[in-house]
Amino acid sequence: MRDALTRKLESFEELSDADRAALRALVPRLRQVPARTDLIQEGDVPSHVHLILDGYACRYKVLPDGQRQIMAFFVPGDFCDLNVFILDQMDHSIGTISPCKTVEIPRHAIEEITAHHPQVTRALMWCALVDEAVLREWLVNIGSRQADQRIAHLFCELLLRLEAVGRVTDNSYAFPFTQTDVADTMGLSDVQVSRTLRELRGLNLITLKHRILTILDVERLRAYCGFNPNYLHLRNARWSGRRQVPWLSSVRGE
Amino acid sequence: MADRGNVESLVVLQSIAVDTGSPDRVGMLVIANGLLVAVLVRLDAPEHERRGSWYMEVRLGRLAKVRPPVFETLEDATRWVRKRFRENAS
Predict the structure, then answer these.
(1) What is the pTM of this model?
(2) Contact residues on chain A for B70, CB-CB shorter than 8 A
(3) Partner residue facing A195 (CB), from B22, B49, B67
(4) B64-70 — which CB contacts under 8 Å span 24+ positions?
């Protein structure tokens, strides 16, 4: 079975058997990390790249008054930060939300694989581009969307990201986040999150039971928050046509 | 400064129904020294983790600058508002 990383990279680029073998070679240093545990903290010197193979994690900062802001969610197949080893000091923390299987990839292994596997390198560049695009979309979310739309948008995004790595069944996926996690992500209060979840349930758009989120009507939820998946740049995902690569078409004379 | 550190702010609550788009509609206007400074709403919807507590739905003026907790009782809320005014006055 393909692991989450390979699945994810293949949603950006076609990989050869050699590429896949090289990626598998990254994975042996597997680590089981309990829920709610920091992988690395603000101020630490990063020496490895963290890859999430299973479970959910997040990137966050804590303000002097104790308020936490979550800036990113990591799902299986996500690098917590591909180029983090260039930093001399972490400017944020990375912690698990649920129990995670993670891999610590040493710097030289990343340099090795990128030197010899151009398709993998391109796929990794896609990952970095998409991480930035997701961050932009979250900025739009917090700055411009209403509370209910923000949360609906997050549900749509997670559906596609998790689907790309085979973690969605019948429009349901694991949702181990607490109301406070969502509030700290969306710049809302716990109460606003609780009310919004109630409203989305009342509209028969979602159910959330035993930490499993089910989207009852994907098209309606998408319309509800005006979700456009273009920023995820996933091939073969629902709602996505073939990815447009204009310069490539012109080179090929298409 | 309008408030002196040694003068306690007069905080008055006035009952009001509030439209929150949810079953939470029992509310209180919070009036400090004659000015509306906040609106509290009781968390009645069954989904809330702290049902029966009081949530500061709206904060105005100096209260807008601080992050309030959810209050167990109206007395806790009033005490918190008074404390904020005391801190700000000194």
Answers:
(1) 0.87
(2) 190-191
(3) B22
(4) B67/A65, B67/A67, B70/A190, B70/A191, B70/B43
What pLDDT digit, counting tens, does each position of A200-211 carry?
Answer: 999 999 999 999
- All residues at 6 or more sequence positions from B43 whose CB lies less than 8 Å from its CB, including other chains: A191, B24, B50, B51, B52, B53, B54, B55, B70
The residue of chain A nearest to residue B20, with distances taken between CA atoms, is: A195
Q: Which of A132, A138, A126 is nearest to A70 (CA)?
A: A138
CA atoms within 13 Å, Cβ hemisphere of B27: 19
Rounded Cα–Cα distance for residues A69 and A61 (Å): 5
Give the pair of three-digit tokens for residue A197. 């979840």
Complex confidence, ipTM? 0.85
Instruction: Say yes or no: B71 contacts chain A, CB-CB below 8 A.
Output: no
Partner residues linked to A99 by β-bridges = none
Q: What are phi and psi of A123, to 5 degrees?
A: -65, -40
Which spans in chain A are helix H?
4-10, 17-26, 107-116, 118-144, 147-164, 179-186, 190-202, 218-225, 246-252
What is the DSSP secondary structure assignment for residue A172, as one 8-state letter? E
